[in-house]
Design a protein that fits this description.
With 75 residues, this protein is mainly alpha-helical. It is built from two helices and no strands. It has a domain at 36-70. The chain starts with 35 loop residues before the first helix and ends in a 5-residue tail after the last helix.
């Protein structure tokens, strides 16, 4: 797997979106490299459900953090 398909997340920028949707605080922009097939599936899911891709990505991050918190990894 090369760098273009790895799930690499860069540091968030300090620029907030103009309309935060996160109930816990400001939403920041970040850059993520995602495999092309995952992007295509996410776009299709978003189109079919009319739910923004960003909403699904925030949900996925919440799920990941909850998963590791349950394992006692101190998040």
């Amino acid at each position: 797997m090369d760098a273009s398909t790895q799930g690499i997340i860069s540091q968030p920028s300090t620029v907030s979106e103009t309309k935060p949707t996160d109930k816990e605080g400001d939403v920041v922009s970040t850059h993520v490299l995602v495999a092309e097939d995952q992007v295509e599936k996410l776009r299709e899911l978003s189109r079919r459900t009319r739910v923004a891709q960003s909403e699904y990505l925030r949900e996925a991050v919440d799920d990941l953090l909850a998963k590791y918190h349950k394992r006692g990894n101190g998040l």
